[in-house]
Design goal:
Length: 199
Amino acid sequence: MLLQELRKIGSRIKQERLKYGLTLEEVAKATGLSAGFISLLENGKINPSVKSLVRLCSFFSIHLASLFEEESNDQVVFLFPKEKQIEINLDKNQTIRFLFPKKSFIEPVLVTLQPHFVTQDFTTHKGIEFGYVIEGTIEVHIKDYGVIKCHEGDSIMYSSETPHKLQNSTDKVAIGLWIGLPFANSGTSEILMKGVKNA
């Protein structure tokens, strides 16, 4: 990552920590990361792994995309060209492309899962998520609920505050459009979910 991006990520993490009045040691204990690592990260002096960022984001209940947000503006229309979109690879088996650069009421990402992609890590963050499978089959694991198999053309919505993860148990690549609504509170989630059930 570029130095400017590292500083932006570090500043965002520090902002979240201070917002809750937490020490480096408290965050380190909760996430399993060292206090020294978090300090270097906050000061933009280390290039973190995606896994460590996911741990921190889950702890602070923020979406990974928010670490790469740009300054907001008053534009009525915002075009975000493909060449400016950020794409990250997770363990070479999962690719996430952030389709929008700033934290807003909607956070769309394009998810690509390689064949037989399995992860043990659940994630949580505020709001709700909507998913649409473009190609293949994506399994949505909801902790204490079960596994929902979503095939090409299927869509799904769930509370992202409940531990969840995506997997691909098939022999083919799976691609999905996942949209996070980070500012949807529990009341909004209940209304939306109720509307889906009654549709």
